[in-house]
Structures are given as C-alpha cells and as structure tokens.
Amino acid sequence: MKNLKQLFLILAILFPIGTYINAQYKAKGIIDKTTSKQQETPKTQWFQNAKFGLFIHWGLYSILGGEWNGKRYYGSSEWIMNRAKIPVVEYSKLAQQFNPVKFNAAEWVKIAKEAGMKYIVITAKHHDGFAMFDSKVSDFNIMHTPFHRDPLKELSVACQKNNIKLGFYYSQFLDWHEPNGGGNDWDFVEKNKDYKSYYQSKSIPQIKELLSNYGPLGLIWFDMPGGLSKEETQALIDTARRLQPNCLFSSRVGHGLGDFLDFGDSEVPATVIKEPWEAIFTHNDSWGYLKFDFNFKTPSEIIRLLTNIVSKGGNLMLNVGPKADGTIPEESIKCLLSVGKWLKINGKAIYGTTYGPIAPQPWGVTTLKPDKLFLHVMLRPKNGDLIVPGVNVKVKKVWFLSNMKSLNWKQNQQMLKVKLPLVLPDDANSVIVVEYTGKISDSYIDAPSVISPQFNECNLDVIKAKPTGNTKIEPITYSFYFGVWKHTTCATMMQSPSDSLIYNVEFAEPGDYKIILEYSCPIENSKQEGLLQVGGQKFYFETLSTGNYDVSRPLMFIQQSVAMITVRKAGLQTIKISPVNEGKELFKLRRIIVKPVEYKF
Ligand code: FHN
Predict the structure, then answer these.
(1) Reported pTM
(2) Which residues in 113-126 are b (16+ Cβ under 10 Å) and which e?
(3) What is the second-level CATH architecture of the domain 458-596?
(4) Where is the Glycoside hydrolase family 29 N-terminal domain positioned along the sequence (predicted)?
(5) Which of 73, 224, 280, 290 to mutate to test the pocket of ligand 1 (most atoms within 8 A of CB)?
(6) How far apart are the first and last CA of the chain?
(7) 223 Cα to the center of ligand 1, angstroms
(8) The pLDDT value given to residue 30
(9) Which fold has domain 356-447?
(10) 461 close to ligand 1 (CB < 6 Angstrom)
(11) How many angstroms does the Cα of residue 560 sit away from the middle of ligand 1?
C-alpha cells in the first residue's frame, strides 16, 4: 500500500511536467514560438550552442550506493531514504561519515571538458535535504561533516578557470529532512505540513545563497515542483532573477515557467522542438551512485543519443553518480573521454548547430549551420548510395568531416546522392559535410517516410503518420523499475473503422517487402481485428496480447508481421491502419517496420 502511495506521490509531481509536454504534443510535438512558454533569448544562446552538459548527483546517498540494512534497492539510489523509509534521525548520521577525500574539482572539470561538455550541473540539495555546500540556512550541510570543505565552491573556481558554465540542481519542494518539506510521510504527517514556511525558511534562502556566493551561474536546475502557485513560483523566479539576471532556470521550476524546457527523465521528444530544450539521461540506470548497477551506456550509444537529440534542436545533459570517496566511476570516465575524442573530431557538426531540416532517414539524421548541412550517417546503405531528399539548395562540396576526404555526389531537383566508400570512418556516426549556397527549407515535417531495400529495415515512427477520427498520437511513460523511466510515442484510441492512421511513404526502389507492426495490447483488448491497406491491397490481422499495462508495470511491445507486398514501381504510396469493427482500443502502435525480402536463392 505504501508503495502505491509513493508511486502516486511521484506521479503527482511528475505529471505536471508530463502534462505540459503532453499538451505540446497536441501540436505533434512541434512547439512553435506562439505556443511555447520557453522562448529563445540572447541569454539562452550559450545554452543552445552548448549541446552537451554533465549532470552530477552526489550526496549522502552516495555513501549507501543503493544498500540499506543489508537490502539492495534497485533503481534511483538517491531515493533510498524514501524507499527504505529511513528516519531522519538515522539518515542524518550519514553526515558524520561523509569524507570524500579523493574529491578533486579540477579533475572533474578536466574530465567534463575532455568529454566535450560545456556545462556542469551538480546537486546542491537533493530531496534528502542535505546541502552539498556551506549553507548558513541549515546545519544539515557538508561543512558539518569530516570533509569540512565546500565542493561547490571548489567546482565554481575550477569551472571559471576552464570556461565551463556551472549550474546547481536544487530540489525546491521535496525535502525529507524537514517537517514542512515535501515528501516525507514516514516521519511527518503530510497533511499537517506548511509548505510555504518551508519555502520561506529554507528553500528560497538557500537558492539565494547559491546565487550570491558561487560567482556567475549558468543555470539553476529546479526539480520536482510543488507547493507553490504559479504567482508564487513567478515571485521565486523574480527574486532569483534580481540576484543573477543571466542565470537560466529549468522548466521544472514549475507551471510551464523557466528559460528552457526539460523533458522527462531519459526522454527524447519524437520531433523537432523549436525552443531551448534539454534531454537528461543517466549513464547507467541511477542518478546517484548505485554500486550494483553496471548497465552503463557505451560511447557509441551516447554519441548516437547526443546526435539524435541535437538533430531535434536540443541538448543532452548526461549524468554521472560519483562515489562517497569523491571519485567518478571508472566506467563513466572511460565512456566520457571516448565520446570526447569523437567530439574533438566531429564537434563542428554538433556545437552551435540548429535542428536538422531533413526528416530522419534510414541512414541517420542531419544538423545545420548557415552554409553547411551535416549528414550523420549511422547506417551505411548496402549499395553505398546515400540518398538525401529535400536538399533544395545549390550544393558546392561534399566531404567527410573526420578526414576531409571529398566524396562524389550528384544532385537533381530536391535530392542529393552521395557515393559512400565501402568502409565508413566511424561506425557510431560518420559525419558528412554538405557545403551549399542558398537557404535550405525545413522538409522534416511533411516529408514522406522513406522505405529502401538498401537497409535491413526501415522504421516508420507513428509521429510521421496522420491520425484520423479519435486516433491520438501521444507520448507514453512507463517504468521497468523505480525511478527508471522509459518514454515512447504511440498511436492510441483506435476503436472504430473511422479511427485510422495514415502514413505517406516513399518506396525508393521496387521490390518485395514485409510489413511488421510493433505495438502493445493488453489481454482484454487482444484478439480484435485490424486492417492494413497498402497499394490497393487489404491485409487483415488479429491483435496479439502483450500482457497488462499500468504505469507501475512495464509497457511491453510485440512485433507482428501482417503483410507481404510486391512494389513494382518506386514512388509514393500510403499505408493505412484501422480497426475492422467498433470495439476497444485496437492497440498502442509504436511503429511500423518494413523489411526488404530478397528472393535471391
Ligand atoms: O526525483 C528526482 C530524481 O532523483 C533525479 O534527481 C531526477 C533527475 O532528473 N529528477 C527527479 C525525478 O525526475
């Protein structure tokens, strides 16, 4: 029962974030200037050019590393006080043993810089209420530990020396140490709390300390908003603004305010977002140090994640969870330095770019500078012909960024074809520079999804399709285990033949293709009939069950092959999916996968 309450608390706080973002998806995730709350301004320029930042979750929870009283807690380790219901009086004793003697601010900043990161955001106070800085507001801080040093002050000095922007994470509402802070319902009674007095006595005074004592800050990364009205939140922002007018505030300050939009944990929006925004990811599955979590993302995964985010106009802030001794886990250091090596060679295609004007292709994505289009090739077409649709400008030169080697190319109407060598320079992401004159226009919105037999499979994400009737295209969040959030976008609410999903697709070549649906379908909705129509042919199918779904249990997906087609002529076609009869929601469709079928034997 307690866990359910816990879950509702988290969701109650997370949903405002999700609801705001969800609302934006109504415009299919493309937030134009008229609807978004966060506007691009001169002071967000550094943030939008930075593209890559380091998130650091470090605190008393790092001592525990996910373990308490011999029990291991899987998932976000910085929540251990809450999950193990550790009484304040017990948890506070950890301060007496916190002595990260191996902490070296210059070393951390050097790693971030060599990783190609342009800003660092570190937890000044997380939900446990412990201040990782010299605070006169509350003695529950790092100066009252054997360490007796202010790591945020030392980081501030090191960042200024290395031209790295420094930001502080601050949990402005959740504070399990304080009787009037949000979230601790095991030592205190939530309904008796006076959140306003918490803000007045701790939260706001500490935010002022951070904005007054650590030099010019790049940003304050507020988190888990709650307990304040929109007017009170605006007043908090105005107070902070007066101290540092150029300091940016994350959208998690609440009420759709803030200077840049943060999506949910580990979430990348399905389309381009035309305002300052950031995706935040853990390196393994925990923000704080979790001694038994080795699910670290590889350098190639980070490079591709960063590339995909930047191609949609955003930043990636990647987290590390330092240990109690002040060292960053070796796995994170090695990965960051490897990503940094790739950025040293290819950074021109990342930093200072804007979103890619060309729709994602089976081979990869694009980013843009005024006279250069960057092609991020993550999958080589089998025949070596890289097809780039929508290039409506005069191409002058085409070359690999990594070795400056020129490439042969041809251009006709709006399509550029580049001849690739047998081996690409980089198997994570080989960047090709297309130098051009003129102004390239956005074709990512309405361009048809390309299907080519030069790739083993082509993914048609639902965001590219047109919903009709009651069909919705919406983001869905689910979790495999505590604090580890997964996000996807699905077509939902298809309950009658008039609720359909229509894809415009371009078959690059004639050939035979297998069409596969990837969806989630609870038991009680399964065994309903669906219909896929393409090229004048009808393919009926019966949905299969993927188990049950609620936000506390994972949303499982299945791939069901529903059609085999022969395309006699390259060109545009539509693929339409709909229920056959009135009924329950047919499924939550995530994507269509089209695989070429070769009858070469
Ligand atoms: O509850 C926190 C969590 O511990 C972590 O700090 C993340 C980082 O985005 N923010 C909240 C959950 O979204």
Answers:
(1) 0.94
(2) bbbbbbbbbbbbbb
(3) Sandwich (2.60)
(4) 26-348
(5) 224
(6) 60
(7) 7
(8) 35
(9) Immunoglobulin-like (2.60.40)
(10) no
(11) 35
